[in-house]
């Protein structure tokens, strides 16, 4: 059934895209994704020599972004033993850049109203089975109170559809509202310290509004880099049908002074090897223009959604085996970037991938229905979600399981509050120095969470991990740094919060 | 490709760069300048961190601050001089 746009919506849509904020980045009138060139590189690098792959691995281990031909060669590896070498190197890189911690966050869906009509998306305009809702600022506050005060999250990604009622002003208001929340907890207080945003592409002026209220990372997924597929899946006449408006939104964000940007692809829309190449080209182009690459890369796979047959029918769906390969190749191709594995994936696969030691961030206690945290509904409801989740475990459960695997969960949000952003963070990441800050702040924020939110069982598992981390830190950092860590640690045990390196 | 920087910000960056060079050569301490946007303190200019001690944020005004993780190694008199001088360039 066709859903007709209102006059107000149509008028608003006409003013969204600013062509001059696209053309300024084009080179010879073209964007940086040349579909033919990508396919040519994938063809040219078939059957790569073992020695060459090992040289590429070595380059990644030195935390250097790869050339497209090098990534294409990795994507063409067939030998299982060589794949194992790639997986092992991916884990080493992650450890070198970020240490062993895994940062945890939660999504907060603020609205599912959308003027677009993407064929794979549960929130598409013409999907009439979806219950539409936009949270008021009071409802946003209630959601944040549950997340910060009951579950213990410190970092959110706020998610918005593209609609005149959820424009940049609304997004800025919601960010402000979330940051204002402060909730008493068992031994201290809970607060959201970093609000990342997943929203539609915006103009430089709108992004400046988000910058001014202290946005964390601005995340936009290209969905697919393949021009023709993009055109097919994003119907003409919608804002999202403009490939280049979307492709250059991170450029605009960086120009607006939002110097942490995040890329992603929805795997399953087109050939996964092509999409990995697209992500690499994107990262390289950002580096070329701004000297800053992506803060994170996400790699969600297409999941079932209410009344959305495309999600089941796509011929490009990615198998679990290929999924693990693409994650490892992204890690090697853009070695400094953060990598996000979300609760879209089933629990068993998330555990397996986490144990490979490649990814840096995951979500937990995840709810993606609008108002779902404060409504406290426990079952998934397809008609108010964009898609169905694969892993609905609680944060407490997930932290306990990770702790048993030897991993510390971090709630660190220090970097963007002391200038470790943009070019500065890039240098720290590439030199491996950021890993030390990650390790120190993981211990402090994990201590906070254990004291405020952990169940008894989780606390027991958590204490063992935290002691192991402290021992490792003692060996690794100068005495004055260790002594400062222990001073902060004790102060946190005594109820102080938000102390960081 | 960054957006054109305002003249006053440019002057602040120039002056900060000159003084942070001086501090680095005299005391071996890294300072970096950040622009404040809500909770976000975005890197603008200066040296990278040379130690793993906690960052100290020294506010020049509502919009700019300097950060260091070895701030205590700079003599008090020099710190005051530095802050007062940079405040003049940061619009307060």
Automatic annotation (TrEMBL), chain A:
<dbReference type="InterPro" id="IPR007197">
    <property type="entry name" value="rSAM"/>
</dbReference>
<dbReference type="Pfam" id="PF06968">
    <property type="entry name" value="BATS"/>
</dbReference>
<dbReference type="GO" id="GO:0051539">
    <property type="term" value="F:4 iron, 4 sulfur cluster binding"/>
</dbReference>
<dbReference type="GO" id="GO:0042364">
    <property type="term" value="P:water-soluble vitamin biosynthetic process"/>
</dbReference>
<protein>
    <submittedName>
        <fullName>Iron-only hydrogenase maturation protein HydG</fullName>
    </submittedName>
</protein>
<dbReference type="InterPro" id="IPR024007">
    <property type="entry name" value="FeFe-hyd_mat_HydG"/>
</dbReference>
<dbReference type="InterPro" id="IPR058240">
    <property type="entry name" value="rSAM_sf"/>
</dbReference>
<dbReference type="GO" id="GO:0044272">
    <property type="term" value="P:sulfur compound biosynthetic process"/>
</dbReference>
<dbReference type="InterPro" id="IPR013785">
    <property type="entry name" value="Aldolase_TIM"/>
</dbReference>
<dbReference type="InterPro" id="IPR034428">
    <property type="entry name" value="ThiH/NoCL/HydG-like"/>
</dbReference>
<keyword id="KW-0949">S-adenosyl-L-methionine</keyword>
<dbReference type="GO" id="GO:0046872">
    <property type="term" value="F:metal ion binding"/>
</dbReference>
<keyword id="KW-0004">4Fe-4S</keyword>
<dbReference type="GO" id="GO:0003824">
    <property type="term" value="F:catalytic activity"/>
</dbReference>
<keyword id="KW-0408">Iron</keyword>
<dbReference type="Pfam" id="PF04055">
    <property type="entry name" value="Radical_SAM"/>
</dbReference>
<keyword id="KW-0479">Metal-binding</keyword>
<feature type="domain" description="Radical SAM core">
    <location>
        <begin position="98"/>
        <end position="336"/>
    </location>
</feature>
<keyword id="KW-0411">Iron-sulfur</keyword>
<dbReference type="InterPro" id="IPR010722">
    <property type="entry name" value="BATS_dom"/>
</dbReference>
TrEMBL record, chain B:
<protein>
    <submittedName>
        <fullName>Uncharacterized protein</fullName>
    </submittedName>
</protein>
């Amino acid at each position: 059934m066709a859903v007709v746009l209102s006059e107000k919506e149509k008028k608003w849509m006409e003013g969204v895209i600013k062509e001059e904020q696209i053309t300024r980045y084009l080179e010879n009138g073209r964007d940086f994704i040349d579909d033919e060139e990508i396919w040519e590189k994938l063809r040219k690098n078939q059957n790569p020599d073992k020695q060459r792959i090992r040289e590429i691995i070595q380059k990644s281990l030195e935390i250097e972004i790869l050339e497209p031909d090098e990534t294409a060669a990795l994507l063409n590896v067939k030998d299982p033993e060589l794949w194992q070498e790639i997986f092992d190197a991916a884990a080493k890189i992650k450890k070198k850049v970020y240490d062993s911690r895994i940062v945890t966050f939660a999504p907060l869906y603020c609205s599912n109203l959308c003027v677009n009509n993407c064929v794979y998306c549960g929130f598409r305009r013409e999907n009439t089975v979806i219950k539409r809702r936009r949270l008021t600022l009071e409802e946003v506050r209630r959601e944040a109170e549950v997340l910060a005060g009951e579950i213990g999250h410190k970092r959110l990604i706020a998610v918005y559809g593209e609609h005149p009622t959820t424009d940049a002003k609304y997004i800025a208001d919601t960010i402000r509202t979330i940051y204002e929340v402060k909730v008493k907890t068992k031994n201290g207080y809970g607060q959201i310290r970093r609000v990342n945003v997943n929203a539609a592409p915006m103009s430089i002026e709108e992004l400046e509004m988000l910058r001014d209220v202290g946005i964390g990372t601005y995340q936009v997924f290209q969905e697919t880099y393949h021009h023709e597929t993009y055109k097919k899946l994003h119907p003409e006449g919608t804002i999202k049908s403009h490939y280049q408006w979307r492709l250059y939104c991170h450029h605009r964000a960086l120009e607006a002074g939002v110097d942490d940007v995040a890329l992603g692809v929805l795997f399953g829309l087109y050939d996964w090897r092509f999409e990995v190449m697209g992500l690499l080209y994107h990262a390289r182009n950002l580096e070329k223009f701004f000297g800053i690459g992506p803060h994170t890369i996400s790699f969600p796979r297409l999941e079932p959604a209410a009344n959305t047959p495309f999600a089941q029918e796509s011929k490009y769906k990615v198998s679990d085996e290929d999924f693990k390969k693409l994650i490892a190749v992204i890690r090697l191709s853009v070695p400094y970037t953060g990598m996000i594995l979300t609760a879209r994936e089933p629990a068993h696969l998330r555990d397996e991938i986490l144990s490979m030691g490649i990814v840096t961030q995951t979500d937990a206690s995840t709810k993606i229905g609008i108002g779902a945290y404060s409504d406290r509904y426990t079952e998934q409801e397809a008609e108010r979600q964009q898609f169905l989740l694969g892993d609905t475990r609680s944060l407490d459960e997930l932290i306990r399981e990770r702790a048993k695997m030897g991993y510390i969960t971090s709630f660190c949000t220090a970097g963007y509050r002391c200038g470790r952003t943009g070019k500065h963070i890039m240098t720290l990441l590439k030199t491996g120095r950021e890993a030390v800050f990650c390790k120190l702040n993981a211990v402090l924020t994990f201590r906070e969470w254990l004291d405020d939110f952990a169940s008894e069982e989780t606390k027991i598992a958590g204490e063992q991990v935290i002691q192991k981390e402290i021992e490792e830190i003692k060996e690794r950092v100068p005495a004055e740094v260790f002594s400062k860590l222990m001073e902060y640690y004790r102060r946190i045990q005594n109820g102080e919060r938000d102390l960081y390196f | 490709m960054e957006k054109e920087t305002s003249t006053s910000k440019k002057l602040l960056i120039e002056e900060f760069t000159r003084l942070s060079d001086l501090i680095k050569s005299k005391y071996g301490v890294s300072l970096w300048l950040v622009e404040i946007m809500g909770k976000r303190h975005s890197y603008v200019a200066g040296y990278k961190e040379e130690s793993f001690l906690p960052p100290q944020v020294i506010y020049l005004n509502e919009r700019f601050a300097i950060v260091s993780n070895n701030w205590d190694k700079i003599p008090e008199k020099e710190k005051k001089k530095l802050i007062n001088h940079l405040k003049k360039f940061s619009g307060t």
